[in-house]
């Protein structure tokens, strides 16, 4: 009688195992590494070098069911990311600031 309960429970447990899961990590003695992860519709790929620079990407499905992708780098110039999942500023912050009268007067004198 116990087997009639245990066996179906084990079959259900095995059938419920998550699908499409893949993790790969490698590193060499110089300090370079590579990480690749695919779990439940999300993915991440990252490579790092011995000099400290890193590049990679990740993707995920957002709440609306849209696949979003982001690529990034990190190194001497800092962290930089581009992708369709990042917010975009509504205002152009590169607009030149007009000179104040005091600055204009100082330039004329100097």
Structural class: alpha+beta
Percent of residues in β-strands: 35-45%
Secondary-structure element order, N to C:
HEEEEEEH
Count all strands and give the number: 6
Low-confidence stretches: none
**What average pLDDT do the residues reach?**
83
Major sheet = 6 strands, antiparallel
Structure, described:
The chain is α+β, with helices and mostly antiparallel strands. It has a domain at about 20-85. The protein has 2 helices and 6 strands; from the N terminus they run H-E-E-E-E-E-E-H. The chain has helices spanning about 1-15, 100-110, and strands at about 20-25, 35-40, 40-50, 55-60, 65-75, 80-85. Strand 5 and strand 6 (about 80-85) form a beta hairpin. The relative contact order is 0.09. This is Chitin bind 4 domain containing protein. GO terms for molecular function: structural constituent of chitin-based larval cuticle. InterPro entries: CHIT_BIND_RR_consensus, Cuticle_Struct_Prot, Insect_cuticle.
Brief overview:
With 110 residues, this protein is an alpha+beta fold. It has helices at residues 2-15, 101-109; strands spanning 22-27, 33-39, 42-48, 54-61, 67-75, 78-83. Pfam families: Chitin_bind_4.
Question: Which secondary structure elements does this structure contain, and how are they paired or packed?
Answer:
Elements: H1 2-15, E1 22-27, E2 33-39, E3 42-48, E4 54-61, E5 67-75, E6 78-83, H2 101-109
Antiparallel strand pairs: 1-2, 2-3, 3-4, 4-5, 5-6
